[in-house]
């Protein structure tokens, strides 16, 4: 077998493994968000009224995001010094253990205040694992195999998000069909327990992989950086800041649609839990089908130009999305979030490959992990919480939430533009070709 054929085979296996593992991780993460919106309140916060319990559930949801930058630094350090493959096996194991433990965690009625405390700790452990997962999966997919198509390699990782969302929403929709008491008592636990099987599948695919070619070549040329985070902040801090802003909508949008919209529609608009979960499932399928097409378009037009264009389209569709969702009619809700998804996930599909090429190989794992996960803490974890607060301040009207969403889009477009300019200024061929 020729070197090119070997590289192509390695690249295919790496992309598949990155997709499968990331889909499992996002399944675990999404079922927590869904459960926070429709189940955790009465189980872990029964002494609060409905609105306060929902806010407490979303605050617990944020705990996972607080731990993500820590995971990004720790696993980024290990990944830049020891390699991508073994680090990704560790993140998948940690995520699986934490998710399964949530599924067997007793509620407030059984162990009192220890229940929400343990829930927060397990959620933080989930966040710690995801903090190292995304960046490593992106590099495994973009650094393996033949070079020249980082956007397409990164897209496989981004496909893990809708795939995990589809699986999580499908399983949650099935258990949500249980009678109210059964779902609240034990039904919501089933998706968490099923994660054990998915983790085994993810581990099998990752243990068979080879280390990424670019990392191997980098180690052959020079010893690993002793302290990647220090090197990163000393010499590449401007790129880190720009990457944080460039990631804003990519992180916020998913939870805005899958978590906030679910709570808003079921609590404010009177849409049944089952119907809304089915709508979100259809929307996740749409995202999964659209992202590969969007990536091919970005390869033709240029990543930064395509991303800014799709962000502009997302902004233009923001108010129509809320108007359609506010009708409370399932078909119009799906139309609203579907149009917004087509626009916004075009940008999201390209984001991973765009960020991966913005940092040198020696600090790349730390660079994309720290920037992306810092953004997840500041923006992703607060999105459903702030959206719920703006909704309450507006007396249940969506206007304040729409303004918040538009600001998020504007910040993201600015970050993409600045990061693209910084990378082009470096005149690094492997970077400028894709950015």
TrEMBL record:
Main location: membrane
A GO term for molecular function: transmembrane transporter activity
Pfam families in the record: MFS_1 (PF07690)
PROSITE patterns in the cross-refs: MFS
TM regions (residue ranges): 16-41, 53-76, 88-111, 117-141, 162-180, 186-205, 240-265, 271-290, 302-325, 331-356, 368-391, 397-423
Protein location: Cell membrane
Protein topology in the membrane: Multi-pass membrane protein
The keyword Secreted appears for this protein: no
GO CC terms of this entry: plasma membrane
Key words of the record: Cell membrane, Membrane, Transmembrane, Transmembrane helix, Transport
Protein name per the record: Putative MFS family arabinose efflux permease
Organism the protein comes from: Amycolatopsis thermoflava
């Amino acid at each position: 077998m020729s070197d090119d054929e070997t590289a192509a085979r390695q690249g295919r296996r790496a992309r598949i493994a990155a997709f499968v593992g990331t889909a499992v991780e996002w399944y675990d993460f999404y079922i927590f968000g869904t459960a926070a919106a429709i189940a955790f309140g009465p189980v872990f916060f029964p002494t609060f009224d409905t609105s306060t319990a929902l806010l407490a559930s979303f605050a617990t949801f944020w705990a996972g995001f607080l731990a993500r930058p820590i995971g990004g630094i720790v696993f980024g350090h290990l990944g830049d010094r020891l390699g991508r493959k073994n680090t990704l096996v560790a993140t998948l194991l940690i995520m699986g253990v934490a998710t399964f433990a949530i599924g067997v965690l007793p509620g407030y009625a059984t162990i009192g205040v220890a229940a929400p405390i343990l829930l927060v700790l397990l959620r933080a452990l989930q966040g710690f694992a995801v903090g190292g997962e995304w960046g490593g999966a992106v590099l495994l997919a973009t650094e393996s195999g033949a070079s020249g198509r980082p956007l397409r390699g990164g897209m496989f990782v981004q496909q893990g998000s809708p795939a995990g969302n589809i699986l999580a929403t499908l399983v949650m929709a099935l258990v949500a069909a249980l009678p109210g008491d059964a779902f609240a008592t034990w039904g919501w636990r089933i998706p968490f327990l099923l994660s054990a099987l998915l983790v085994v599948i993810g581990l099998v695919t990752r243990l068979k992989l080879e280390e990424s070619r670019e990392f191997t070549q980098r180690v052959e040329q020079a010893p690993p950086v002793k302290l990647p985070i220090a090197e990163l902040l000393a010499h590449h801090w401007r790129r880190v800041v720009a990457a944080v802003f460039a990631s804003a909508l990519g992180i916020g949008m998913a939870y805005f649609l899958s978590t906030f919209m679910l709570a808003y529609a079921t609590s404010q608009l009177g849409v049944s839990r089952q119907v809304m979960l089915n709508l979100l499932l259809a929307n996740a399928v749409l995202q999964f089908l659209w992202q590969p097409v969007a990536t091919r378009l970005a390869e033709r037009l240029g990543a930064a130009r395509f991303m800014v264009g799709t962000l502009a389209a997302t902004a233009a569709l923001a108010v129509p999305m809320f108007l359609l969702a506010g009708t409370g009619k399932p078909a119009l809700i799906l139309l609203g979030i579907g149009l917004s998804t087509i626009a916004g996930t075009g940008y999201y599909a390209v984001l991973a490959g765009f960020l991966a090429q913005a940092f040198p190989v020696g600090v790349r794992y730390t660079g994309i992990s720290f920037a992306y996960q810092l953004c997840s803490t500041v923006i992703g974890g607060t999105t459903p919480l702030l959206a719920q607060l703006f909704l309450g301040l507006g007396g249940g009207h969506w206007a304040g939430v729409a303004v918040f969403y538009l600001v998020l889009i504007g910040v993201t477009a600015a970050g993409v533009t600045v990061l693209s300019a910084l990378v082009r200024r470096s005149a690094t061929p492997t970077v400028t070709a894709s950015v």
